[in-house]
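Hello again,

I reread your note about wanting to compare the complex against the isolated chains. To keep things tidy I'm splitting this into two emails, and this first one only covers the full assembly. Below are the input lines as submitted, including protein chains and any nucleic acid or small-molecule components. They are followed by the predicted structure of everything together. The single-chain runs will come separately.
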Amino acid sequence: MTETLTFLLSGTLLAGTPLLIAALGELVTEKSGILNLSVEGMMAVGAIFAFMVVTGGGSYWVALAAGGMAALVVAALFAVVVIFTLANQVAAGLAVGILGLGLAGLIGDPFEAQTVPPMPKLPIPGLAGLPVLGRGLFDHVPVVYLAPVLALATWLMLTRTRLGLLLRSAGENPDAANSIGINVRFVRFCATLYGGFCAGVAGGFISVVSATLWADGIIAGRGWIVVALVVFGTWRAGRIAIGAYLFGLATLSGLLVQTTGVAIPSQLLTSIPYIVTIVAIALLSMNPKLTWLNAPVSLGQPYLPTK
Amino acid sequence: MKRTVLATLAALGLSTAAIAQDLTVGYIYPAPVADVGWAKQLDLGREAVEAAYGDRVASVVVDSVPEGPDAARVMNQMVSDGAKFLMLGSFGYMNDGIKLGRKHPDIAMIHASGFKQTDNFGTFTARNYEGFYLAGMAAGMKTQSNVIGLVGAFPIPELVAEVNAITLAAQSVNPDVQVKIVWINTWFDPPKAQEAARALVSQGADVLFSLHQDTPSVVTVAENEGVWVVNTGSDMREYAPTKLLVSVTNDWTDYFVREVV
Amino acid sequence: MIRIEPRTRAPGLWAAVPPVLAVLATILASTVILNILGVPPLDALHYLYVAPFSSRFNFAEVLLKMAPLLIIAQALAIGFRARIWNIGAEGQLILGAIGGSLLPVAFNDSVNPLMLPAMAAIGMVFGMGWAAIAAWLRTRFNANEILVTLMLNSIALQLLYYLVSGPLRDPYGYNFPQSALFPDVAMLPTLISGTRANSALIVALAATLLAWGLTQRSFVGFRLRVGGLAPGAARYAGFSEHRAIWMALLIGGGAAGLAGVFEVAGPLGQLQRVVTPGYGFAAIIVAFLGGLNPVGILAASFFMAVIYVGGDVAQTAAGVPHTVNLVLQGVLLVTYVAARVFTDYQVTWSQRAKA
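Full-complex prediction:
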């Protein structure tokens, strides 16, 4: 029983971390008014670049940063296309996403099914010794601890700093922001790049930290879950964090139920996280105050400064 | 622990007297050829054919061909490029292969894991369950927690046979053994395979079986968690230097060489 | 410096710029990438763009690939014009395939010629039903349809796996996860003998005409377009947003469902685990590439089909990895959406400094 709990706790953190990191990046991007659907492709690019760095002998931190930078470049392409050529964001996001997936697969071809050694864990002294909670929550690689810290930092940034205000005004009312001198396009551009960086780090986490291998298609649809999480979390960092971990928990529970031999079809258990997400989004969206209060008004709409 | 394959092949369309001077052989794999995995083992068979026949044989290889409507196109392309013998590396290519065989009676094909045969379409499979029976016995003897965990992709007949073999074998040497299975319902999601492996470990499994996972996903988890692991397909010793109990591999080399004749 | 302003007049010839630029960029990218992979440029061009036309079989494959893309894209475009983003065509296709398989599996020895039309109808209903879930959630709960349809894709796939592993499995199929092969009356008639091109193409062309009629000539289409271009005006004019959502999603779901039936009644001949090589997503690309316009979509679906078939040829003949297809599709669409700036906006070079 304790083993099960430990597994659930530790597995949830491990599964939720990349989702959370990428979702926080997407949150910043969306708050500035840009809907970036290319997360899957950006994560894949991040995954392969991080993997290549580790295989080439680099440290894990450098690898994650490299993954982030690679994905940032992809995000820059997306940003230029939607901010400067005013392309339809849904179409552009899908396009860049596919491009990213293809490039990652192409570049990663020689590395197919190779592995890397695991990143050293950093047990938190004292706490890691606790029964159940210790091994579950406090015996992880440092990136796992940083994820909730990032959530907190993102929330602080968005709600308490001038930078956050800039971001939010670019997303809420770009015309008004423009009229008081904010360069909306630049703000959105930077926000999109940041979102890309986060997605890349998340992808790198999946390939070099959690799976410790690379294979074409390793992201397996998680990029879309990230996009869903931002909506699920009603554009608030704290709720996004809950959502990310919940999704991880739901997936793991499904696997765990199978081990008990209960006669529920495995396909149903595999579907449960998705069903839960739909139900949750429906329930949350029902209350406009809850959801749309936080959604940036101009999300997805192209902005052309008029002077 | 190697098992050589046993073939079930009907008469070849090619008469053995007329061996082509240059025979082009086409190989179609459903997965990418990497260092390990299903496609790799098939590819080793191709290398054996090339080594045995040297210049008399030319090979065309296409990997990562998904099952479904696209496979037929690749097969057709190979035949129009001159291939006279095709090795179809996945169950899902069966119907398209048979249709192709009817259109082109002068080619021959062998197909993995199917159940239909015609004059120029043969099937081959490996009695993996025999290998898994032995592995199951080893697992049954090695386990101390009496829980064995299996990570499988889809509950298709080949895997179900293996599961049964493992269970029967383990219980034959250790009647108290419990076998737990997780089906991840995808051929391809290494992180999910790893989560399944960890879930099984948390339920007490101290021997894991990686059933047809093409990547060393489960194997590396086993090494990290300190449990024994048996995997399918390739020798994955280097991924789990201390914890690999057994690899049930497929050695197609002799069989392919025989069939190309 | 470059000034971009919203266009006040019709783009005229500028409308041709995005597709032409996109195609050129793709051709360039394909030559470059294949060159890096060791394929000489002329060979690359041959494999990708000439080979698909070089034999009866290949050309028929282009037509075979084009039909589902065309059917689905026409329907999706109608919704996209109304800014209703149905990303769930993949799942709706799967549901359509399931629905279309019920009759042939239940009546496996039948010789009734009505089976095929009945299958098509049932498949469409199933596809529409799946899309209806998203429509209901959007109209009743305000749930974003992008996410709901996306999640429904994954669930549809699991449902398919469950059905072919159990209830719909062929009892004589040695337990393999697939249904029995369909009887001849359940199969689509072939269009060109000796190939796989079937009458799905005719339906696709009919769908194109229907789509053109709907969007260009009918009031329904008008309402949908206004809803997309100027939601405020549409509301003021009394165009029901809910009705638009239902219509858009049902049309998309029905078309995808029909395409699903055509897959199982065409090249597959049975229900199995893989019924679509990503048509649902590819159709979204085709819809955008075609400028959300019925004629443009016709051209775009043809070009996409050529890329697919050419990619397979390159893979077989030159060992090019299949991921190149994705990269090329990405380049195609990215260039297209970026180049749209020339049609949607007026790009001028002005000498004045920024005011």
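For quick reference: The first helix of chain C runs from residue 17 to 36.

B.
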